[in-house]
Write a structure and sequence with these properties.
By secondary structure, this protein is mainly α. Helix content is 48%, strand content 9%. The chain contains four helices and two strands.
């Protein structure tokens, strides 16, 4: 559904999810190509404002997240601020299968006179 010029988004969205939904609607309208240039520009500007709002909300949420590092002597949790490094980068370096080293030819494989074998 395309918003009319008089319905231009001038308010802050109720929540992050609402802003994301409005942003998805704007992207759909722009990708559809059924609206004119002026209205497309207005929708684009609205989308950019919503995108900035979403980034701001995510930044604030990120600042509130703490990483549990352990417990003190009294059993209280000990935390530190999240460092902002994506954990996916850490997993890429440590997870997964190890690469195999090239197989060495066994004595039986080198011997052409040994005849056919299963292994």
């Amino acid at each position: 559904m395309v918003k009319k010029k008089s319905e231009k988004i001038d308010r802050q969205p109720e929540s992050f999810e609402a802003a994301l939904g409005e942003l998805a609607e704007i992207v759909g309208d722009l990708e559809d190509g059924s609206i004119g240039l002026e209205e497309s520009l207005e929708r684009f500007e609205d989308g950019m404002r919503l995108l900035r709002h979403c980034h701001e909300v995510l930044g604030k949420a990120e600042a509130r997240i703490e990483q549990l590092t352990g417990f003190d002597a009294d059993g209280n949790p000990v935390t530190k601020p999240l460092d902002g490094v994506a954990t996916i980068d850490q997993q890429k370096n440590s997870a997964g299968r190890r690469q195999r080293s090239p197989r060495k030819a066994s004595k039986a494989e080198d011997d052409d006179d040994a005849g056919p074998t299963l292994f």
